[in-house]
Design a protein that fits this description.
Blueprint lengths: L30 E2 L2 E6 L6 E4 L6 E2 L11 H12 L2 E2 L6 H10 L8 E5 H9 L26 E13 H6 L14 H4 L2 E3 L5 H13 L8 H12 L3 E2 L4 H6 L4 E5 H10 L8 E4 L10 E10 L6 H12 L1 H9 L3 E2 L14 H7 E2 L3 H19 L5
Parallel strand pairs: 4-5, 8-9, 8-10, 12-14
Antiparallel strand pairs: 1-2, 2-3, 6-12, 7-10, 7-11, 7-12, 7-13
C-alpha cells in the first residue's frame, strides 16, 4: 500500500533537502563528457557520482511496494534520476539469508530492513562504509560510527482490529496483551513469524509485557502456544484477509494499521482500530523497532546506491515515509500527522532495548521462539 507522492527531492544536483544541510554537501551538478553528475555523501564520504554509470535498475534488499511507502520513494527516485528500483519482496530475515548466500557474488548494492539484521550483516563483513548526506541528523544510538549502518525510520508494535466486527460480536477493544487471549479474539488473530523484523518486534513486545527479557523468551513462547491453540495463525500478508473479515485482529506496526486505516481504498476508515498495548499490570508492551540501510561490500552499482541513500535521508524522502505513517528518523525536524496515537499512549507502552545485546542474541531468540511454538522453517 503506498500513500500519495510527497514530491521529488534532489534539486540542484544532489539528493539533499534543497537547502544547506550543514554537512558541506551543497549539491551542484553539471553536464560533463560522461553525463550528469551529483554531489553525494557526508563529511569524508562526500564525492561526485556520474549518471553515465547508473544502471537501468538498482537492487536494494527489501525496498518493495506495499511496505513503508517504498512504492512512492521508488516512483519519486525514478522520476528524478531515471533509475528504477527493483521491487524486492523480502523480509529482513530473508534479505539477510540471501545476502549471506550471495556474499561472494553480490546481486544487490545495499541492505535495507530491520536495523539489527543489518548489524549482523556488518559483523559478517558484508557491508562497507558510506555516510549519506544528513548522516549527522541521525541519533548516535541508531547509526554506527564506521558508516556501515544508518537508521532511516522507526516503527512501534501495535494491534490493529476491525472495530465494526468487534462491535457486532460485543467485544471490547483490547487494552492489554491479556485481552487478546480471550477466545473470541484469539481465534481470529494473526501474528508475523519472528524471522521477519516486524514479527520479532511483536514477539519482543509480548515478551516484555509478561516480564521476559532478551535472555528469557519463555513468556512469549507460552503466550504464542496458547494463542495458537486457540486458533491464531502466524503468517505475513494480512491486509486482504483483514479487509475481508477473515482476520479481525493482527499484530504488526503502528505504520501498518494507520496506513490501512487512513490511506487504503479497500476498507472504510471507521472500521479500523489501532492501539498500543501494555502488559496485564501496565508493563510496556510496544517495542520500538528501528529500520535502516547499509551499503554492501562489492556493491554492483555504488554511485546510484549512494544517491539513493542520500535521497531517502533527505527531508523530502523522510516526509514521504510520513505519508504512510512511518515515523522517519528525522521526525523531530518534521510536522507529525495528528492521526498517530497520542504521545501519552506511546510514553506508557513503548520501550527500546540494548540493541547491541539484541544483535548478540537475535539468531538464538528467533530460533528459540520458532521451535518453541512449532512454527515451520525453524
Amino acid at each position: 500500500m503506498a500513500a500519495g507522492l510527497a514530491g521529488c527531492s534532489g534539486a540542484g544536483g544532489s539528493a539533499g533537502d534543497g537547502e544547506s544541510s550543514g554537512d558541506g554537501s551543497g549539491g551542484g551538478s553539471g553536464d560533463t563528457a560522461s553525463g550528469e553528475t551529483y554531489e553525494v555523501g557526508h563529511g569524508d564520504y562526500q564525492t561526485t557520482v556520474d549518471a553515465a554509470a547508473f544502471p537501468d535498475k538498482l537492487f536494494v534488499y527489501a525496498v518493495q511496494t506495499g511496505w513503508s511507502n517504498w512504492g512512492a520513494q521508488m516512483e519519486a527516485f525514478e522520476g528524478e534520476y531515471g533509475v528504477a528500483l527493483n521491487d524486492d519482496q523480502r523480509s529482513s530475515g530473508e534479505a539477510l539469508t540471501d545476502l549471506r548466500n550471495n556474499a561472494q557474488d553480490p546481486t544487490h548494492s545495499a541492505y535495507n530492513g530491520g536495523y539489527t539484521f543489518g548489524i549482523l550483516a556488518m559483523e559478517d563483513g558484508l557491508t562497507q562504509a558510506y555516510k549519506p548526506a544528513n548522516w549527522d541528523t541521525v541519533p548516535e544510538k541508531l547509526k554506527t560510527d564506521n558508516g556501515h549502518m544508518t537508521a532511516t525510520r522507526r516503527m512501534t508494535t501495535t494491534v490493529t482490529y476491525r472495530t465494526d466486527l468487534y462491535e457486532e460480536q460485543g467485544i471490547d477493544p483490547p487494552e492489554t496483551w491479556e485481552d487478546l487471549r480471550k477466545p473470541e479474539i484469539a481465534a481470529n488473530t494473526q501474528f508475523q513469524p519472528p524471522n521477519a523484523a516486524v514479527g520479532l518486534a511483536g514477539a519482543l513486545s509480548i515478551n516484555n509485557a509478561y516480564g521476559g527479557s532478551l535472555d528469557d523468551v519463555q513468556p512469549v513462547i507460552d503466550y504464542y502456544n496458547e494463542m495458537k491453540d486457540a486458533g491464531a495463525v502466524f503468517a505475513g500478508n494480512v491486509e486482504q484477509k483483514f479487509t475481508k473479515g477473515e482476520v479481525t485482529t493482527f499484530v504488526e506496526y503502528d505504520y501498518t494499521g494507520l496506513d490501512l486505516k487512513h490511506n487504503a481504498d479497500s476498507i472504510a476508515e471507521e472500521k479500523v482500530g489501532v492501539t498500543l498495548l501494555t502488559g496485564p499490570d501496565g508493563e510496556p508492551g510496544a517495542f520500538n523497532q528501528p529500520y535502516g540501510y547499509g551499503m554492501l561490500e562489492g556493491a554492483p552499482n555504488p554511485g546510484a546506491c549512494k544517491l539513493f541513500m542520500d535521497f531517502v535521508l533527505s527531508k523530502e524522502g523522510q516526509r514521504r515515509f510520513l505519508d504512510a505513517f512511518v515515523r522517519p528518523i528525522r521526525a523531530p525536524e518534521l510536522d507529525m500527522p495528528d492521526q498517530f496515537p497520542s504521545q501519552d499512549a506511546y510514553a506508557e507502552a513503548e520501550f527500546q532495548v540494548d540493541y547491541q545485546q539484541m544483535v548478540e542474541n537475535q539468531d538464538s531468540i528467533i530460533e528459540d521462539i520458532g521451535k518453541g511454538v512449532g512454527l515451520t522453517g525453524y
